[in-house]
Design brief:
Bound molecules: CIS-heme D hydroxychlorin gamma-spirolactone, protoporphyrin IX containing FE
Strand content of chain B: under 5%
Number of strands of chain B: 2
Structural class of chain B: mainly alpha
Strand content of chain A: 5-15%
Strand order of the largest sheet of chain A: 1-2
Mean pLDDT of chain A: 85
Low-confidence stretches of chain A: 1-12, 444-449
Strand order of the largest sheet of chain B: 1-2
Low-confidence stretches of chain B: 333-343
Radius of gyration of chain B: 20 Å
Shape of chain A: globular
Order of helices and strands of chain B: HHHHHHHHHHEEHH
Largest sheet of chain B: 2 strands, antiparallel
Oligomer: heterodimer
Helix content of chain B: over 70%
Largest interface: A-B, 79 and 69 residues
Chain lengths: ~450, ~350
C-alpha cells in the first residue's frame, strides 16, 4: 500500500510545490485571523472604555457583540495556529531540525503571550457579569497587550529567516547559538512594526467596511455609525505611518536582500539612477519590465537616499538564486497600491474632520470604504507573498534552500487538497457564523446570552 | 542539574497538565459519542458550560509542549514529524474540527439541524484527536520507531508507527479523557446542586473508572510480557510511581462511591499524573527510544538557559492568571444561582 501511495505522490504535483502551497494556504488563512486577534481587542477596549466614560449603552452593546465575534475568530485562529506549529516540523524537518532552536526562544515567548491571551480571553468572554466593570476592562487590556506581544515574537522568527543571525553553522549543525541576537536581527524592527500596523489596519478597515455596507443597505442608525467610526479611526491612525514603516522595510531589504529588492522592483539590469517602476509586467525572457510607468531616479532615491545611487539588478545574481520575478513584483505593486488607496481614504477622512468637524457623509465615501475591506486584506496577503516568495529559493536566506528542507513523506499532494477542502469549509462557516452574529437583533446581545 | 533535564521535566509537566485539563475537554466530546448524543438539553448545557471559559487556556498546554520541544530538542521534533506523520495528521484534523465545531455550535442558536451537525462533528473529533495523540505517544514509548543515529526516520512512514502498544495507548488515552471529565462533571453538578446530574455522572465516572482500572492492569501485563523491549531494564525505576497510581486509582473509586467530589478529583488527577510520569521516568534519558536521548537531541545550553529564564518569568504571570481564571469559574463556591453569561 505504501508503494501505491508513493507512486501516487511521485506523479502529479511535485513534493516541494505541494508543501509550499500547503504552507502558503495555512499561513495565509491564519494571518487574517491573527490580525483580528491583535486588532479586535483594541476595538473592544475602546468601546467598553467609552461606555464606562459616557454611560452610552451603544458602546456597551458594541463591546459585547464584538467580543462574541472575536471569540469565534480567536477559536478558529488558535486551531489554525496549532496546525502551523505541527506543520513546521512535519513539512520542513531539516529546517526545524537544524534551526528550530535558533528561533526557539521567540516561539517559547509567543507561547506564553498566547497563554496569557487565552486565559484572559476566557475571563473576558465569560466574566461580564462576574467582574466589576473596571476589572473587566483590565482583562481586555491584558488580551490586547498579549496579542501584540505574540505578533511581535512570531514575526521576529520570520525576520530571522530573512536575516539569519546568532549562530554558527558547523557541519550542518547550528552551534554557538545566541537566541537574543537571532531575535533582534536587522530585519526585526521594520518587519514587526510593519506587521503590527498592518494588523490594526486590517481590523480597523474591515470593521469600517462592514458597517459602511450596512449603512448603504439602509441600516443607518447610531449603532452602525459609532461602529464604523471606531473601526475607521483605528485604521486611519495607522494608514499614513504605515507608508513610513513600509519605506523603512524596503530600505532594509535594499541593504540586506538586494536580490529581493530587484525582484520587487522588476529591476533586471544593474543601473545607476534607477527608476521607480509602477505597475508593469516583468518579462523573464527579454529581461525587461514592460509597460511600467517609470519615475526616473526614484528607486535609487527611495532605496538609498540618493537619486544617483547604483541599484543591483537581478542579472547580478546567479540564476539559481533569484526568486520568481513576476509574482514578487506584482505582489509588491498590489501592496503599495492598496496602501496608497487606504492612505488616500484616510486623507479624505482627516480633511473632512479638520474642515467640517465630522467624518465624510457622502455615499461615495461609504462605497469607497466598503472596498477598503477586501483591499486591506489583499495588501496584507500581497505583503507576505513579497516577503516569502521574494526570499526564494531560500528558506533561510543564503543558508538553506527550501528544496533541501522539505519532507519526504508521501502523499503531500493529497494532504494539500484535503487541507484546501477543510479550510474552505471552515472559512465559509466562520463567515456564516459572523454574519449570523451580526444579524442577531441588537437587544439580544444585552442579556449576554 | 543539566538544563536539558529541567526542560524535560517542564515538558512532562506541560504534558500532564494538557492531559488533566485539555484531556477532560476532549472527554466531554467523548461522552457525547458514547451516549450517541442522547443527553438531554440540560445535561449538554452543563457539558458545554463547564468547558467554556477554560477551553482556550487548556488548549495552550499542547501548544506550549510543542514549541518547547521544537526549541529545546529540535532534532527530536523533526524526527517526530516524520515518524508520526500519519497519526499526527489525523490528530491535527481532529483538533481543527473540534475547535472550530465548538465555536460554531455555540453560536448556532436558532439553527437546530446545523447545530446538531456541528455537535456530531465536535463529538467525533474529540474522540479521534486523543486517540491518535495517544497512539503517537504509544508509538514513541514502544521504542520501535526506526531512527538512525542522526535522528532520521528510517521506517515506513505510513505504517511504521503502528504497534500493539500504540493502539493500546490510543484507547487508553480516550478512556483517561472520558474518566477525567466524568469526575470533573460530577464535581460541577454537585457544586451547582443538580441532583439528577450528580447521579448520572457518579455512575459514569464509576463505570469508566473500573474499566480503566482493568485496562491499566492489562497494560502492565502487556509491558511485562513484551519480549525484551529495549527499556525493560528501566521499568523498576517507575514501580513506586505505578504503585502510587494504583493506590490513588482505588482512592478515586472509593471517593466516587461516596460522592466526595473534591477527593475524587484529586485522586483521579493523581492517578493520571502517576501514569504519565511513570512512563517518563521509565524511558529517561531517552526522548525517542531506542537511540535519541535528551543528550544527543538537545540544543546549545545558551538556548536552554534562555528558555528556562523565560519560562520562569512567564510562569510568574501565567500561574496566577490561570489560578484566577479557575477561581472565577471553577471555584467550589461560585454562585450557582447567578446566571452565567456563557452559553
Ligand atoms: C495592511 C497591509 C499593508 C500595507 C498597506 C503595506 N504593507 Fe508592506 N507588508 C505588509 C502589509 C502591508 C505585511 C503583510 O504585513 C508584510 C509582510 C511581511 C511583513 O513583515 O509585513 C509586508 C512586507 C513589506 C515588505 C517586505 C519586507 C521583507 O521582505 O522583509 C516591504 C518592502 C513593504 N512591505 C513595503 C511597503 C510599502 C512601501 C508600503 C507603502 C504603501 C506598504 N508596504 C504597505
Ligand atoms: C512567522 C511567520 C512565518 C513563518 C515562520 C513562515 C515560514 C514559512 C516557511 C517555512 C515556508 C516554506 C519555505 C519557503 O518557501 O521558503 C513558507 C513559505 C511561504 N509562506 Fe511563509 N511564513 C510566515 C508567514 C507567512 C504568512 C503570514 C504568509 C501569508 C500569506 C506566508 C506566505 C507564504 C508563501 C506564499 C510561501 C510559499 C513561498 C514559495 O514557496 O514560493 N508566510 N513560509
Ligand atoms: C495575536 C495574534 C495571533 C494569534 C492569536 C495567533 C495564534 C497562534 C497559535 C495559537 C499558534 C500555535 C501556538 C504557537 O506557536 O505559539 C500560532 C502559531 C503560529 N503563528 Fe500565529 N497567532 C497570532 C499572530 C501571528 C502572526 C502575526 C503571524 C505571522 C506573521 C503568525 C504566524 C504563526 C506561525 C508561523 C505559527 C507557527 C509557529 C510555531 O510553530 O510555533 N501568527 N499562532
Amino acid at each position: 500500500m505504501t508503494d501505491v501511495l508513493l507512486f501516487a505522490a511521485s506523479t502529479g504535483l511535485d513534493q516541494l510545490w505541494a508543501a509550499r502551497m500547503q504552507m502558503a494556504l495555512t499561513l495565509g488563512v491564519h494571518i487574517i485571523l491573527a490580525c483580528f486577534g491583535v486588532g479586535f481587542p483594541v476595538l473592544m477596549l475602546i468601546a467598553e472604555g467609552r461606555y464606562l466614560r459616557t454611560g452610552d449603552a451603544i458602546w456597551k452593546t458594541l463591546a459585547r457583540r464584538w467580543s462574541k465575534a472575536f471569540a469565534v475568530m480567536f477559536a478558529v485562529g488558535a486551531v489554525s495556529g496549532t496546525v502551523l506549529s505541527f506543520e513546521l516540523g512535519m513539512l520542513w524537518p531539516k529546517f526545524m531540525g537544524t534551526f528550530g532552536a535558533v528561533i526557539g526562544l521567540p516561539f517559547t515567548l509567543e507561547g506564553f503571550a498566547f497563554f496569557i491571551e487565552a486565559i484572559f480571553a476566557g475571563i473576558y468572554f465569560y466574566g461580564w457579569d462576574k467582574l466589576s466593570p473596571r476589572v473587566h476592562l483590565l482583562t481586555g487590556l491584558a488580551i490586547a497587550v498579549s496579542g501584540l506581544a505574540s505578533a511581535w515574537f512570531v514575526v521576529t522568527s520570520n525576520a530571522w529567516m530573512n536575516q539569519p543571525r546568532g549562530f554558527d553553522l558547523i557541519n550542518g549543525v547550528a552551534v554557538n547559538i545566541d537566541p537574543i541576537a537571532a531575535m533582534l536581527n536587522p530585519a526585526t524592527g521594520a518587519q514587526t512594526t510593519h506587521m503590527i500596523f498592518a494588523a490594526y489596519m486590517v481590523t480597523g478597515f474591515s470593521v469600517a467596511a462592514f458597517y459602511a455596507w450596512e449603512r448603504l443597505r439602509g441600516r443607518d442608525m447610531a449603532y452602525q455609525r459609532h461602529a464604523m467610526a471606531l473601526g475607521l479611526f483605528l485604521g486611519m491612525v495607522f494608514a499614513l505611518p504605515q507608508f513610513v514603516v513600509g519605506d523603512w522595510a524596503a530600505k532594509m531589504v535594499a541593504q540586506t536582500q538586494p536580490v529581493k529588492l530587484a525582484a520587487m522592483e522588476g529591476q533586471f539590469q544593474t543601473e545607476v539612477s534607477a527608476p521607480l517602476r509602477i505597475g508593469g509586467w516583468p518579462n523573464e525572457e527579454t529581461r525587461r519590465t514592460e509597460y511600467a510607468l517609470e519615475l526616473p531616479g526614484m528607486l535609487s532615491w527611495l532605496a538609498y537616499g540618493d537619486t544617483n545611487a547604483k541599484v543591483d539588478g537581478l542579472d547580478e545574481f546567479p540564476r539559481d538564486e533569484t526568486p520568481p520575478v513576476a509574482v514578487v513584483h506584482i505582489a509588491f505593486q498590489v501592496m503599495v497600491g492598496g496602501g496608497s488607496y487606504l492612505a488616500a481614504l484616510t486623507l479624505w477622512g482627516i480633511g473632512c474632520l479638520v474642515w467640517k468637524r465630522h467624518l465624510p457623509r457622502q455615499r461615495l465615501f461609504l462605497f469607497a470604504l466598503v472596498a477598503a475591506g477586501p483591499i486591506v486584506v489583499l495588501a496584507l496577503e500581497a505583503g507576505w507573498v513579497v516577503t516569502e516568495v521574494g526570499r526564494q529559493p531560500w528558506i533561510v536566506h543564503g543558508i538553506m534552500r527550501t528544496k533541501d528542507a522539505v519532507t519526504h513523506a508521501p502523499g503531500m499532494e493529497k494532504v494539500f487538497w484535503i487541507t484546501l477542502a477543510i479550510y474552505t469549509l471552515l472559512t465559509v462557516m466562520t463567515i456564516g457564523i459572523l454574519r449570523l452574529l451580526a444579524r442577531s437583533p441588537l437587544e439580544a446581545a444585552a442579556d449576554g446570552s | 542539574m543539566a538544563p536539558e533535564a529541567i526542560i524535560l521535566a517542564i515538558l512532562w509537566g506541560a504534558l500532564t497538565l494538557y492531559l488533566l485539563f485539555g484531556g477532560a475537554d476532549f472527554g466531554v466530546g467523548i461522552w457525547e459519542v458514547n451516549t450517541a448524543l442522547q443527553s438531554t438539553e440540560r445535561e449538554r448545557n452543563l457539558l458545554y458550560k463547564a468547558i467554556g471559559p477554560v477551553w482556550e487556556a487548556n488548549h495552550v498546554w499542547l501548544i506550549f509542549f510543542l514549541v518547547c520541544t521544537h526549541a529545546a530538542f529540535p532534532r527530536a521534533y523533526a524526527a517526530l514529524g516524520q515518524a508520526l506523520w500519519v497519526p499526527l495528521l489525523i490528530a491535527i484534523v481532529g483538533i481543527v474540527f473540534r475547535g472550530a465545531a465548538y465555536a460554531f455550535r455555540a453560536n448556532l442558536l436558532g439553527q437546530r439541524t446545523q447545530r446538531t451537525i456541528w455537535e456530531i462533528v465536535f463529538a467525533v473529533a474529540s474522540t479521534v484527536a486523543p486517540f491518535f495523540l495517544g497512539a503517537a505517544a504509544g508509538a514513541v514509548a514502544s521504542g520501535k520507531l526506526e531512527f538512525n543515529d542522526a535522528g532520521e526516520y528510517q521506517g515506513d512512514i505510513l505504517l511504521g508507527w503502528i504497534s500493539p502498544l500504540a493502539i493500546f495507548t490510543g484507547f487508553f488515552t480516550v478512556g483517561v479523557c472520558a474518566f477525567l471529565s466524568a469526575v470533573y462533571l460530577l464535581r460541577e453538578s454537585v457544586n451547582q446542586q443538580h441532583d439528577d446530574l450528580v447521579k448520572v455522572w457518579r455512575r459514569r465516572a464509576l463505570v469508566t473508572g473500573v474499566i480503566m482500572g482493568v485496562l491499566s492492569l492489562l497494560g502492565v501485563a502487556f509491558l511485562a510480557f513484551e519480549p525484551e523491549s529495549f527499556w525493560s531494564d528501566f521499568h523498576e525505576r517507575s514501580l513506586p510511581l505505578f504503585g502510587i497510581g494504583i493506590a490513588s486509582g482505588f482512592a478515586a473509586l472509593v471517593a466516587l462511591w461516596y460522592t466526595w467530589p473534591l477527593a475524587a478529583t484529586i485522586a483521579a488527577a493523581s492517578t493520571v499524573t502517576c501514569v504519565i510520569w511513570g512512563w517518563g521516568v521509565a524511558q529517561y534519558p531517552f526522548l525517542l527510544p531506542p537511540n535519541l536521548t535528551i543528550k544527543n537531541c538537545k540544543t546549545s545550553d545558551s538556548v536552554l538557559w534562555a528558555m528556562l529564564w523565560s519560562i520562569a518569568v512567564g510562569m510568574v504571570i501565567v500561574v496566577p492568571s490561570l489560578w484566577w481564571l479557575l477561581a472565577i469559574f471553577k471555584g467550589a463556591h461560585h454562585d450557582a444561582s447567578k446566571k452565567s453569561s456563557g452559553y
